[in-house]
Automatic annotation (TrEMBL), chain A:
Keywords: Mitochondrion, Ribonucleoprotein, Ribosomal protein. PANTHER family: 39S RIBOSOMAL PROTEIN L43 (PTHR21396), LARGE RIBOSOMAL SUBUNIT PROTEIN ML43 (PTHR21396:SF2). This is Large ribosomal subunit protein mL43. It is found in: Mitochondrion. GO terms for biological process: mitochondrial translation. InterPro entries: Ribosomal_mL43 (IPR039927), Ribosomal_mL43/mS25/NADH_DH (IPR007741), Thioredoxin-like_sf (IPR036249). Belongs to the mitochondrion-specific ribosomal protein mL43 family. The keyword Nuclease does not apply.
UniProtKB/TrEMBL annotation, chain B:
The lineage of its organism: Eukaryota, Fungi, Dikarya, Ascomycota, Pezizomycotina. Belongs to the bacterial ribosomal protein bL21 family. GO terms for molecular function: structural constituent of ribosome. It comes from Penicillium atrosanguineum. This is Large ribosomal subunit protein bL21m. Residues 38-80 are annotated as: Disordered. Residues 38-48 have a biased composition (Low complexity).
Length: 137, 237
């Protein structure tokens, strides 16, 4: 008897029923001394509390990283990590970068040409020459 | 009042213990965030001794029922129809066949481009949709065709939006890898590099549903006589 593999019954389709934000954690790194962290320090004190309150589903960590440029790192459900360096940026720009990380799906960036990817089988089935009406040319 | 605050502290204790498991925290939803914020405001007004730790106290499952969106600021635009839906007799008689045959597709149009959608599809729009946030639910109301395996309902231009429901959820924004195009001119060593990195809205189709005649009648559809240019259901030949 041939060995049969176990067929997967379901595939994860986030958003069909419940929707879980793909970004699970954002790490904000800053340096207390460096000049490139000035905008980041302002962001951490002024904007971040509100951002964190608006996005309670994201875990937010703030930690110093001495002698380095400030950085935002996003951890995603699929296990990927994305990081953006925010040196010398103003707080508003840093918020934009944080929003980019928040909205991202965590997948690798790809160029796709087709707008729709479907896991479903074709609804109308595959055309067959042996079925249906005969048609003249 | 006192008993309520005691209860709340108890609940928060429970929350602390529950937070050890990662999953319930992750399962909270975007659209409940605003709900939760309003609840937090309410609880902070009633002088709770605990810091507002939001996560697992709110309902985690979300339905597509409009009742679940009460606390959300952005309400859907109410439809403004000036006449009830007119359905011909022939359409009414053949609609159960289409509505009953289960997997459905819809050719939804967005900025005059067709998108053939079935339930659970992942859409990456070729543009960044403005004024939407991650987690928003949109209803596509412009369709040129609806169908199942054997039947198709084609609109004369578009299918009336009261015949079907197609909802999608905005799941985020993706971008493409940076494209660098080298621009050169003749007899010149200088090359200019043009960079572009577009961003695209990604969505997930939540449901594609064709309404049954009973539902249509319940919603106030009027049955009229057949005309030549009315929408018809075609069977697969």
């Amino acid at each position: 008897m041939p060995v049969k593999g176990i067929r997967t019954v379901t595939a994860a389709r986030n958003g069909v029923g419940a929707f879980i934000l793909q970004c699970k954690r954002l790490d904000f790194h800053y340096c207390n001394f460096g000049g490139s962290s000035r905008g980041m320090l302002a962001f951490l004190t002024q904007t971040l509390p509100r951002f964190a309150k608006e996005n309670p589903q994201i875990e937010i960590r703030v930690s110093p990283r001495h002698q380095k440029h400030p950085m935002i790192k996003g951890q995603y459900i699929n296990g990927n990590e994305k990081s953006i360096c925010v040196r010398n940026l103003e707080p508003e720009d840093i918020l934009k970068k944080a929003m980019i990380l928040k909205d991202a799906s965590g997948d690798k960036l790809k160029r796709t040409k087709k707008p729709i990817t479907s896991l479903n089988e074709s609804v109308r089935g595959i055309w067959s020459p042996y079925h249906g009406d005969l048609r003249g040319v | 009042m006192f008993s309520r605050s005691v209860l709340r502290s108890l609940v928060s204790d429970l929350r602390c213990t529950a937070s050890a498991a990662p999953l319930p925290q992750r399962a909270c939803l975007h659209q409940t965030a605003l709900l939760r914020a309003s609840q937090q405001e309410a609880s902070s007004q009633s002088s709770s001794p605990n810091p507002d730790t939001p996560l697992s106290a709110t309902p985690r499952a979300q339905t597509s029922q409009p009742d679940a969106h009460q606390g959300i600021k952005k309400q859907p635009v109410a439809p403004s129809f000036d006449s009830p839906l007119k359905v011909t007799k022939s359409l009414m008689s053949s609609l159960p066949h289409l509505a009953g045959q289960s997997p459905h597709y819809v050719v939804a149009e967005l900025h005059a481009r067709p998108y053939l959608l079935t339930e659970g599809d992942h859409i990456r729009l070729p543009f960044l949709m403005p004024n939407v946030k991650t987690g928003d639910i949109l209803r596509f109301n412009r369709a040129s065709a609806l169908g199942s395996r054997d039947f198709t309902l084609k609109g004369s231009q578009h299918v009336d939006e009261r015949l079907f429901e197609c909802r999608v959820r905005v799941t985020g924004v993706e971008s493409e890898p940076l494209r660098i195009k080298e621009k050169t001119k003749r007899r010149q060593r200088h090359t200019k590099t043009a960079k572009s990195k577009h961003r695209y809205t990604i969505m997930r189709v939540m449901d594609v549903r064709i309404k049954t005649p009973e539902e249509l009648l319940q919603e106030g559809a009027v049955v009229v006589e057949d005309t030549a240019d009315a929408t018809k259901i075609e069977a697969k030949s």
